[in-house]
Each structure stands twice: as structure tokens, then as C-alpha cells.
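Annex B. Sample input.
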Amino acid sequence: MKGEGKAAPAPMDPNVPKKITSAIPKQRQKLLKWNGWGYKDSRFVYQDGTIVFSGDKYPIGGNVSLPHFRDYVINNFNVDLADRREGVPIPVKFPAPVPSPEFLNDIQRLGVDYTQDGEDRLIRCRGQTLHDMHMMRTGNFKRLPDMVLFPTGHEQVVEIVVAANQHNVVLIPFGGGTSVSGSITCPEHEIRPIAALDTSQMNRMLWIDRQNLVACFEAGIVGQDLEREMRTLGFTVGHEPDSYEFSTLGGWVATRASGMKKNVYGNIEDLVVRVKMVTGRGAVLERGLSVPRVSCGPDFNHIVLGSEGTLGVITEVVIKIRPLPQVKRYGSLVFPDFGSGIRCLREVAKERLQPASIRLIDNEQFQFGQALKIPGGTIASVGELLKKAYITKVKRMKLDKIAIATLLFEGHEEQVRQNEDKIYAVAKRHGGFSAGSSNGEKGYILTFVIAYIRDLALEYSIVAESFETSVPWDRCESLCINVKSCVRKECAKHNIQHYLISCRVTQSYDTGACVYFYFGFNHIGFANPVTIYEEIENKARNEILASGGSISHHHGIGKIRSRWYQQSVSNVGVQLYKATKRELDPNNIFAVGNLIPVEQQDDELVPSGSVKAKL
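Annex B, continued. Sample output.
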């Protein structure tokens, strides 16, 4: 359905549309790392014989000593902390842009802000995969966008797409740059001009409907900005992926994202009421009504959801909002082993008792989390000894077997209290017991710091990455066992001796769960560590599929998982996607190369001068 000419609901608030001051500046490199994760002032650093976390943006920060983490790194990865290997400095010379004078003339005529500055192009040529970061740290980037465009609204996007069609320019939508699937990495063999379409200046709240609990935002708004704005008005969206400090609303929709609090607020597909996308033709795909549900043939929202920038640019999203919860409370549970924890989470899901968030970590991640604890004084040390004695002597659990669940409750006081009582009763039936709210809060907040650890690892010759899946309950535990076993066997084949493979259950459903795996190894002595890592992860991915898991729960397909796309959706599904691509983007302007490998794309989708023509 084309939504051109459709009137948006009248603003329900006199202060909208409202331009929102973003926490992330237009020149991202002023605040964020160009070759790593997150804020420039926030990082794990080895100094004065210990590891500290710098900056003041996180509770663990302030250069507080983390001696247990230092010992963990040395003992588990055999790391020499005196041997720090910094990446190359940010380049001062860059490949010249592929010429596109006619297109740039149109961009200037349309009043669209743009840049061809080398740094601005560099930081928009990649996402956050291990391959991307290794490429930045070694200076071996293959292809940069030739320009960066900064549209300020939907109409400018329409004009840009029309001009790109006229001049055969590739457009790659760029939101927060947090992709871990290779979805925004520039196709290295693309010889047409590439423009990164940066949506950061499209971050207005267009309207809010307090009565019907919906609001309309432009797609470039960053998660933390969106949530901050909603909270000032007494509402929340409640969508909180690990990346929400930096990722955007449009990126969430394009990848079918999931948040930590989905049990109360839903995944992105549950939150989206209506979405507007400028297709490759320059036409607009949009459902005509903002209603709670409609029976009107296939839901075109779901063509946009998960399209990963291959069909067009998402410009506006109507999204559900909720009043701020009266109560926010944390909790934690200790189980004798990971299997007991899984069975508890299964029963909690079966009884529909899930709190806003319930996450289960295995023993390897428990030990890792313990290493990140900030040491206390004498009283705190005695307290830790008493806790261990209670676990081992009273509860008769083994510290090298236990698994931990962290919980977050949101809602009304009585509702939360009843939910707590019921969940703790279920946990008791599975051998678990409550470990208090403090541990739960620390575990939840630590989620936002974990991504910074990879930057430290890369400085000390450790390659590491996470990958995820969804799996039915009856196969959840066996899948975890099988994948860990597969990784261990592959490490043995490669003679990798110092590594970590661990997992956690992060989201739960009536029928199954999402499982995250974390894998890293010391690569001293290996010539191509990233290639070896990718080979092992690919073997693990095959094991996931063989064990009943999915290709992805919320990270998406991108380029690095495209080889399994047909296996996941069937040949008929691939042909249906290709037919949609031909209709919405016949000139392959959105040739980012996601979902289907370039060599498998239809010839009619590949104009002269594009990637496949060269191949």
C-alpha cells in the first residue's frame, strides 16, 4: 500500500513535532571510538598492575581497580599484560571517492547536507562484527562509501532515492552502526558510487497520542534519546536491546530486533503499529491506518521488518508506548546447575509468569562475572566468604557448577510482589534460591559494559565475539551442550589451548528461548585469527541448526549468515523475497548485499556496473 497523501493523526501535544537533541553527535568520531565499541572515554585499561574501567558513564567506571579481572584474564587466556598491541592510528589518507558529479549536483540542488570527508566515510563503512573491528585495527578496510548523506526528513529521502535511480548510485541506510551481521559493511566489489544514507538528523518525535498510547518518531532517533524523551512525558517504549545506547529505531525495525524487557513490552514487531519506508522505486510503502489490528491480506509491516536495508529506507515509525511503571525491582536466583535453571525458566514461561526480564547464565559466565566485581573492604570480603559457605555447606551446591538467573520486575507494587512470590516458588521446586536484588541489578547493568571487553581483548591478542539463536524448550539444554562441545572440538583441531565458550538464556517464550554464546581465544602464534574464528563459528552455526536452533533470534542475517538463509526460509521463500526485491527495488539501488549472497542474486537485479557484473 502506498501511503502518499495519507494524513498523519493530528498532534496530541502542542510541543510536537519536536527536534530531539541526540546524545550522539553528527560527527560520531568526536564521541565514539572509530575502531571499537561505544564511548571514547569508556574502556577497560591495564594500568599500574591492575585493570580499570575508565570514564563515568557506567557504575563500574571511575578507574576503580578490578584485580580479580586481571587475574581471570591471565589465568584463563594465558595473556601477557605487558604485551599490549594497539591498532593502527586513524588514517590520514583515504581512497578517493568514486566520481558521481551529476548525483552530487542533484544532492546540492535538493539542499541535502553531505560530506566526502575521509573520516566520516570510514566510520560508516562497517558495523561491529569481529571482522569489521579487526579490519579497522589493522587498516585493511576494503571499500568505503563515496559520500555520506544527511537527510532531515522523509521528503528528502524520497528525493535522494529518485536521484540515486537516475544516476545509478547505491544507497546504504546507516543508523547507529551497531550491526553484528555485516549488514552495513560496504560490499567490497561494488564499483558503482556508494552513498551512506545517515539517518541521524531524522530524529524528531512527530506526534504523540496519549489516549491511544502511540507515538510517531523519525527512524533515526537513537534508543537512549527516544527513551529519555518518553520518560520526560511519563511514558516508556520499553525496548531495551543491549545496544540501545547507540542503535536506532529504524535499525530495530530493519533487523527485527528484540529487547531485554520484551516479556512486558514485546519485541519490535509487537511494538510497531505502522512503518513508513521509501522503496527503491522512490515510492512509499505504508499501511493506511494506525489501528491495533487489521485483517486486510498480508501485513506489509512485515515486509519492512527484517528487510535489512535491501528494499528501501525506513523513515518514520508509529510505535506503542506505555505509562512508566510504578515499581522497578531486581532479583537473582542461584541454581545447582544450568539444566536446573533452564527447567525453571521453562516452567516460568509455561505459567506465563515471566517478569520484564529473566536471564540465565552458565557457570563459565558466572565465573567471568565474579571477576568483574569491585573488591570491597574487610566486611565485604567476610560477606563474600559467608555467601560461598552458604552455597556450598548449607545448599550443598558446587561453585564450579552453579548457574545464576537475573530478574527485572516492572509494574504495580502488588503485581510485582505476587510475581516475585510465584517465581521464587517455581525456582525452589528446581533447586534454586533467591540471591537478592543487589546481584540482580549488578548483573543486569553489566550487560551494557560487556561489549567493551572485546576492545581490551583485541589489544592483548584475543579474538572474541558473540552469536545467538532461538530454540524450542525441549532442545534448549542439548543445543547448549552440543554447541559447546563442537567449539571445544574445533579448538582442539586448531590446537587452540586458551579459550572461553559460554552461554546464557536471554529471552524466553511459551515455546522456546533465545540463547547467546560467547567465544574467544588467545591467538598468539596464529597467522589468520579472524579467519580461524569465523571457521569455528560457522561450524558452531551448523551445529545450532542441526540441534534444532534458528539462524538468528534478533541479530539478523546480513552478509555473514546469508549462506544459511535459503536453508532457513526454503527456496520458495527466497523466490518470494526476490520477487519483492524486483518490485520494490528494480534497479538494485539498495545493493547492500544482505540476506542473499551476491552470486545467488538474479541477473535482472544486477545492473551494469554493479557488484555481480564485475564478478
